[in-house]
Amino acid sequence: MKRIPTTARKENWPEEQPGVSDSTGAKGDRRTTARGLHAQRRVAAREDVSDDEASGSDRSVGWLVGVAGACRRKMGRRRLSGPERETGRKPMDIIPKRRRSNETAPVNGKTADDDDGADINGIDIISNLPNEVLCHILSFLDTKYAVGTSILSTKWQNLLPLIPNLRIQLDDTLLLHPESASSTNLISFMNFVDKLLNVTLRDVSSIYSFYIVCRKIDDGQVIANWINAALRLNIKMMGILIRRPRKSSFLLDSLFGCNLVSLNLFVDFADDGPECRFSLPNLKLLAIQYMKPNPVNNLLACCPVLEYLVVHNCYCNAGETLRIRIPSLKALKLVNELYWVHCKIELDAPELMLRHYPRPLTRFPKLVDMAIKKIDSHGWKLLPSVLECAPNLKNLYLKAISHHSSQITELCFILEE
Amino acid sequence: MVTTDEKGPLTAKKKSVIIRSCDGDEFLVSESAAVLSTSLKKILEEKEDRLIHLSDIDNKTLAMVIAYLSTHADDGLSDDLKRSFDQEFVSGKEFDVLKYLVLATDTLQVTCLCYTVAKKMADIMKNKLVEWVRREFDIQNDYTPEAEAEIRRLDAWAWDDRQLEDD
């Protein structure tokens, strides 16, 4: 039994979406049912399997699929017979009188002879479960592994299109062996994505989200084709992380006019970035990283209903201005403030009621919660005037850092809903 | 760990249901717990009788399901406590236990438990070799060698690392 090394660490998306999880309708229904179960991810005490388990990072996000009704048809044939007697009950006894066998119900540790895999009835219990339950299991797996289960048996083939609210998560570095010929792996990855989007999911009308990480693949045209294919699946949420793409104009053009509600655009443009031509009429959440002020300004001008904006690492030169003029904006998060030192920020967002941050400050009567994570010396100086301007502030969260320990400042303003 | 209504008689203030496993043992469950299972709820709505025989769920599995249902039917417990109960419930359970559990939750239509168990099973499957999963999950490979090779060829990226490992 070999262990699969997860040589490539999957990078998490740099920032969670602030507060949007319960605000976008698309996600809300899922969250309510899945509430609290994300903690299941941390099921640690798996003595029986932990030895064999590679400690790969776990980015799969589960959700509740429609298992209700999965087995209604079964109820008929499973004899749920009525009562035969009403009295003569005995105290409940959880020790089975007739154990199936040691193999099927080990209580502590492994039994000695449970390795042949034969069920007492010789039945492949798992594969005989309804597709809905199998899809339910697959929905917790990363796309690569969910597709990988098709090799188990014919029953597991072609399950992917049946998963409701499918989340696609692709990462071209996932388990890539650095020592192996990477070009072969990249071709293999590209074929995989092509087949997934154009063949496997051909008859699927909608999926939930599409996230792709391209650290090796840099051809904007290839990625743009995938984005177009994904958009045909009526996704509402998309995340793209690309290291220094070539032909990036293709990439951004592919997003033109799409119906996305949430977009994470982490594209590290080598130069100034392309001329953007955007239209994102339904976009409510936008997280961007590595973009220069001008493309950001163009982008923001094309998001008429944007409510949540997260800007990471915006490379600003002296004299450049970042214009955030969004009437519908409710929350703004600027991450890694060092990049903002030379940048002038114009903030015109009446719903946010926060203007010209960080200087000069006006009053923010709607500001009730404020979090300043990793406040540095600059932040401390700024704090009194911020507090003066926020007469209705109820909650203030501060996390201090020493001057030299980190160069990251993160400010987060949250307004009352 | 299994909570029951010890008062027993059906005339007790709290309505109870008797559930009999395929092993023949009987479990006393409060009705409020039983109706968390969509299947049991339907049966109880249709019948006056208070004894339900489950012909394909054994004692051990049924006891676990009932423990789960009773905990979730307990109004005195906060959602947080129920959540941590859920975590504990599947933690450390072996696959041989889980597979009967998922079968039972499917039969009884206990959606949230099915969710919890499926998540746990997915966690077990993660980063495992195909052969390992087949053996541990009792999955019978019914592919011909040719068909399996073709599938491996078509989605090579899904198994690239595994093949490298095997070489």
UniProtKB/TrEMBL annotation, chain A:
InterPro entries: F-box-like_dom_sf, F-box_AtFBL13-like, F-box_dom, FBL60-like, LRR_FXL15/At3g58940/PEG3-like
Domain F-box positions: 123-160
Cross-referenced PROSITE patterns: FBOX
Naturally occurring in which organism (per UniProt): Rehmannia glutinosa
Cited Gene3D superfamilies: 1.20.1280.50
Region (Disordered) location: 1-58
Official protein name in the record: F-box domain-containing protein
From TrEMBL, chain B:
Pathway where this protein functions: Protein modification; protein ubiquitination
UniProt keyword Magnesium, yes or no: no
Keywords: Ubl conjugation pathway
Record-linked Gene3D superfamilies: Potassium Channel Kv1.1, Chain A
Residues annotated as domain SKP1 component POZ: 15-73
Residues of the SKP1 component dimerisation domain: 118-158
Pfam hit, one: Skp1
Keyword Plastid: no
InterPro entries assigned: SKP1, SKP1-like, SKP1-like_dim_sf, SKP1/BTB/POZ_sf, Skp1_comp_dimer, Skp1_comp_POZ
Subunit structure, as described in the record: Part of a SCF (SKP1-cullin-F-box) protein ligase complex.
PANTHER family: SKP1
Family label: Belongs to the SKP1 family.
Function, as annotated: Involved in ubiquitination and subsequent proteasomal degradation of target proteins. Together with CUL1, RBX1 and a F-box protein, it forms a SCF E3 ubiquitin ligase complex. The functional specificity of this complex depends on the type of F-box protein. In the SCF complex, it serves as an adapter that links the F-box protein to CUL1.
Name this protein carries in UniProt: SKP1-like protein
Species name: Rehmannia glutinosa (Chinese foxglove)
